[in-house]
Amino acid sequence: MIDAPLLQVDGLSKNFGGLQVSSNISMDLRKGDRCALIGPNGAGKTTFVNLVTGVIPPTAGTIRIEGHDVTRQSAEARVRRGLIRSFQVARLFRSMTVREHLELAVLERTGRTFRLFANVRRIPGLADEVAELLEGMGLTAVAETAVGTLAYGQQRLLEIALALAMKPKVLILDEPAAGVPHSESHRILDALDRLPDDLAVLMIEHDMDLVFRFAKRIIVLAQGQLLCSGTAAEITADPRVREVYLGSRAHAH
Amino acid sequence: MTAVESDKMTTNTSTLPHSRPALPRIVTDAMPVVVMAVGGLAAFWLFPNDLGLLTRILAAALFVMSLDMVLGYCGIATLGHAAMFGTGAYAAGIVAVNWVSDPLALLAVGGVAGGLIALATGALILHARGLTLLMLTIAVAQIVQEVANKARDWTGGSDGLSGIDPAPVLGLFRFDLYGRTSYLFALAVLIVGFLVARRIVRSPCGLACRGVREEPLRIAALGGSPRRYLVSMYAVAGVFAGIAGALTAITSGIVGLDSVGFSWSAEAMIMLVLGGTGRLYGAVIGTVAFMAIHHILASTDPFHWMLFIGLFLMGIVLFLPGGIASLSARVLPLVKGGR
Ligand SMILES: Nc1ncnc2c1ncn2[C@@H]1O[C@H](COP(=O)(O)OP(=O)(O)OP(=O)(O)O)[C@@H](O)[C@H]1O
Ligand SMILES: [Mg+2]
């Protein structure tokens, strides 16, 4: 059990009607892993994340967190086991402030959200922890700003801060830099560099600069299937990867 | 880069804590209470002959406030909120006629009854959303009304339940013929109710409910159960609605089937939208505005008052989408800027 991977996926498949969006995917993540999941548009990356996190049920396969089979468990139960994701499209509470987001995340993690008469501002330790998270992502200056009016890059940083507020063991980031202007994506990378060392991270990303700088291992998904996995050098050298990325254009040359 | 810099500019000017109204929190927190107390007492002196109407307004304001907890803070669209109000009113009325007549005990009875019916029906229907949920809330209220109609022995059926004769408040203040005690009692209950409700919507649970309203999927991603929050707040709002019902029963002495009626639910919704959702005091403003206009128009022009109310509502929705209460948020910065 000591050596059980933090996240272990076995033979995961999903059909939408006749369409097989994930087929027989197996992979695992261990402490400290920095892994990237790449693949062309529509490869089934987001679907894979939804399956693993319990948003949609798989057609077949098992998912284990630290050796516990969570395939039949709810998304919430998986979160409580330390499996946390960020969203590709920012799913934030638009009218609420940055601070309120982080307060809610910390309260949720510590199971204190059902207190009806407590004053959020006076809960011991909460303000300090939120301040630390704000500082960590460089969001202190916008703490009192409603998230709907925030610059997109800052919303992405808040996504990551929210995930960290949950003290994850496994963190899945679905395109953390999507929609962020290139001039600002270094902020995201800085934030990713400062993630706790023993965290296992799976990042889904199209921006190859980001992938190559961040990931020690890369998994390639194409048409719902695991094509190959390896280091950046191995992946770039693999002709099959070029094939799926360049498609018919590769044949034309 | 310039985008980042301008971001910093705008945020630097507004990083004071709780920056929205730009006034200290103590002031903005105390303001609604002071206005309610002073305005309430002023109305008491100014309109001694209308205390019956004014008392009804105060109880209705508490009811609309409880609707705000559901609609404004949780985003639950309901046209059946009168189910909780009516249940509280009947429960308090029945207990008053048969057993206990202490007004505070009757409020508690109404609150418990309203809370329980909200908990039971909320657990049943709050998995639905949108239009389905709206229909289910209407159905629940219809069922409650039909039960009240059929249980004639207890409720008086369509004749209504009468003969509610509450004991003096705290054993000291008798309910007098002029309705002075009723009015002041209702005013006190409303203000205390407001303070408690505000405490609740600012609690961790209130914060989570606002999150559910905005993005339930994210709440689940944080490990929370959106439905459990909705049911909890629905039940809490049911307590407030039940207390409002009991307050009406105590101060008016009668409970009728209209207290569970569809139009009472719908009117509450109109009053809330008029005043502005998600602020609690907006509920009070909307109730006072709607019922006062209703009263004035209905007595001056009994044939066309609905038309005027309709036009007024359209005007508010079109030109002041945040309701009347949003005026303060718009005017305060101007006042401050002028200094
Ligand atoms: N609920 C659904 N019902 C039917 N088909 C779906 C559903 N969700 C996704 N799909 C299909 O599954 C395929 C994979 O979608 P998915 O969103 O997982 O791709 P992705 O790899 O995340 O793509 P992108 O890079 O554009 O984010 C697509 O062809 C999509 O149309
Ligand atoms: Mg995707």
What's the topology here?
The complex is a heterodimer of chains A (253) and B (339).
Chain A: E1 7-16, E2 19-29, E3 34-38, H1 45-53, E4 60-65, E5 68-69, H2 75-80, E6 83-86, H3 98-109, H4 126-136, H5 152-165, E7 170-174, H6 185-193, E8 200-204, H7 208-214, E9 217-222, E10 225-230, H8 232-237, H9 239-246, H10 248-252
Parallel strand pairs in A: 3-8, 3-9, 6-7, 7-8
Antiparallel strand pairs in A: 1-2, 1-4, 4-5, 9-10
Helix pairs in contact in A: 3-4, 3-5, 4-5, 5-6
Chain B: H1 2-12, H2 25-46, H3 51-74, H4 82-98, H5 103-125, H6 130-150, H7 152-155, H8 180-201, H9 204-214, H10 216-221, H11 226-252, H12 262-275, H13 281-300, H14 305-319, H15 326-338
Helix pairs in contact in B: 2-8, 3-8, 3-11, 3-12, 3-13, 4-5, 4-6, 4-11, 5-11, 8-11, 9-11, 12-13, 13-14
Bound molecules: adenosine-5'-triphosphate and magnesium ion (MG).
Give a brief outline of the structure.
The complex is a heterodimer of chains A (253) and B (339). Chain A has 253 residues and is of the alpha/beta class.
What does this structure look like?
The complex is a heterodimer of chains A (about 250) and B (about 350). Chain A is an alpha/beta fold and about 250 residues long. Chain A has helices spanning about 45-55, 75-80, 100-110, 125-135, 150-165, 185-195, 210-215, 230-235, 240-245, 250, and strands at about 5-15, 20-30, 35-40, 60-65, 70, 85, 170-175, 200-205, 215-220, 225-230. Chain A has one domain (about 5-250): P-loop containing nucleotide triphosphate hydrolases (Rossmann fold, 3-Layer(aba) Sandwich), CATH 3.40.50. Chain A is built from 10 helices and 10 strands. In chain A, helix 3 (about 100-110) packs across helix 4, helix 3 runs parallel beside helix 5 and helix 4 packs across helix 5 (about 150-165). Residues about 250-253 of chain A have low confidence and may be disordered. Chain B has one domain: ABC transporter involved in vitamin B12 uptake, BtuC, CATH 1.10.3470. In chain B, about 75% of the residues lie in helices and about 0% in strands. Chain B is built from 15 helices and no strands. Chain B has helices spanning about 1-10, 25-45, 50-75, 80-100, 105-125, 130-150, 150-155, 180-200, 205-215, 215-220, 225-250, 260-275, 280-300, 305-320, 325-339. In chain B, helix 3 (about 50-75) packs across helix 13. Chains A and B meet through helix 2 and helix 3 of A and helix 1, helix 9, helix 10 and helix 11 of B.
